[in-house]
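Sharing a chain and its predicted structure for anyone who wants a worked example. Both blocks are below, sequence first, tokens second.
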Amino acid sequence: MKKLFDFDGLFDEKLAEYMQINAGKYTEKQWESLIPKLYKQFGDTFIPAAGATPKQYYAEMSDSELVEALAAHVKEEVPASDFLCRELESRRCPDALVALLGETDTELLTLAVNLIGSDPKGFGGYFSILERDDADEDVVEAVCEQLKGNADAAKERALACYARGIRPELMLEILSRTTGKDDAVFDILLRAFRESGEEMPMRASYLAAFGDARALGTLLETIDRDDINFLEYQELKYAIEALGGEYTKLRDFSNDPYFIEIMGQQSGAVDILRPKN
């Protein structure tokens, strides 16, 4: 494996020198705009110790070498530069990167998930992670976001996991983002909503995301119940409107603890903003 370079650390050193030389020349906002441009230029700057520019250094590596370098950066606690990550992304999800989904290091797993993205090549590994009871919740969240980004490709696996009782709430969330308007998916989302307890607001949002107006009848029937609280009412009303419906009946939530808390927070915000006499 080629030598590890902390290109970001080197850039920070060069940037500090540049900022010192140009002190007072730019405003803070101008620096915020300039630094990303300087970083991009740095990627094309020849680094004698590396014998290449940062971009060239990684472009010359094979897929397996890039993934090996990424893992080594994490293990050795040397920051993995954006140049390494962008080169990996350009390789269109190499098999060596997918293989990292079997690792247990949280940082490395999160990097791998973010680099693989919503490519179906990674879905087998993603669902294996979701099936693990000891999976880190941050990694699980990252996986779920990528699966939602390509939910149609994830649908069959999500249906199978839901049927087996594996992270049902996450599977509902993934299924709600499918676009095919599959009747089986609709039935699952609607049944889950009807059977929901404290999860009602979230499961109403799944119906809204799925976008099938056939759910309107159930949503309208539910929002009209006297036993719903203010948070449930808000999410139900949003879902109804998202599906093209409308609910105009006036409701009194003045004694609802959620309503009182939210109104209190808003009142506090107003007090903070109100000028003092």
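Comments welcome. The mean pLDDT is 93.
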